[in-house]
Q: What sequence folds into this?
């Protein structure tokens, strides 16, 4: 029932308005919890309200901060299986208001690495630059390129970025990531895969099985409510065909798949 309602809202072109209503309701729901978190943690810098919601999906300060730290630990553990994290350039592409990236300089304080973040939202990057002086930030556009030279990074990761791009845009960005990645460098990315098929209509499931990529649009590309779904076959035969796949971690129910590749 919920999915049918969302499909109707999408067809009517009202998703961004519905998302804003969800933001307001979430703000009310977490009001007292958030107030307590701010009192207990006065030194933790938090992004503006809607910026946080747009990147995280709910207005829960504690979860934004604590889950961000957990995600950073998990991502770094996966990356370190395949590449040293010492004396490298590391990029989070699509860093948003640094829910994950903010923790990395502290976690890897003894590794002597340079940490970078890139995002297409000008307001987000402006806030990032003002709030975290120990990270190098740059703004990109919805389409490539990045401002970095060829073969600049040893390690790049992105979480839930391809999930908000059109098929053609996905492929262009993957090629751009490969351009700025050093030979032997690794890239970790997440996508909506098989475990997310329950969200799709029967027609969309057929497209997913036959073509491998389903795009839910009727909203601005790059926004949280613009969603894409990629099958394992699509990833192996189209997006990742020119790189070495190091690890594929299928998501559990409604979790995103993780892919780690080497240039």
A:
């Amino acid at each position: 029932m919920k999915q049918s309602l969302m499909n109707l809202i999408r067809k009517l072109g009202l998703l961004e308005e519905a998302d804003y209503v969800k933001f307001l309701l979430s703000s009310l729901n977490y009001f007292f919890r958030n107030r307590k978190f701010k009192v207990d943690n006065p030194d933790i810098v938090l992004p503006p309200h809607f910026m946080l919601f747009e990147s995280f999906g709910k207005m829960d300060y504690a979860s934004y901060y604590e889950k961000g730290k957990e995600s950073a630990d998990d991502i770094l553990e996966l990356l370190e299986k395949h590449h040293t994290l010492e004396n490298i350039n590391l990029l989070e592409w699509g860093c948003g208001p640094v829910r994950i990236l903010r923790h990395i300089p502290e976690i890897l304080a003894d590794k002597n690495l340079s940490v970078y973040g890139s995002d297409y939202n000008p307001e987000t990057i402006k806030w990032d630059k003002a709030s975290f002086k120990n990270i190098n930030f740059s703004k990109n556009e919805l389409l490539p390129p990045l401002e970095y030279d060829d073969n600049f990074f040893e390690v790049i990761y992105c979480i839930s970025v391809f999930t908000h791009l059109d098929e053609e845009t996905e492929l262009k960005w993957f090629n751009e990531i490969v351009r700025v990645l050093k030979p032997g460098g690794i890239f970790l990315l997440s996508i909506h895969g098989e475990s997310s098929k329950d969200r799709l209509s029967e027609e969309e499931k057929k497209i997913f099985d036959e073509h491998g990529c389903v795009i839910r649009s009727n909203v601005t590309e790059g926004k949280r409510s613009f969603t894409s779904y990629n099958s394992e076959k699509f990833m192996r035969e189209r997006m990742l065909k020119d790189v070495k796949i190091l690890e594929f971690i299928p998501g559990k129910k409604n979790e995103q798949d993780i892919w780690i590749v080497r240039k």
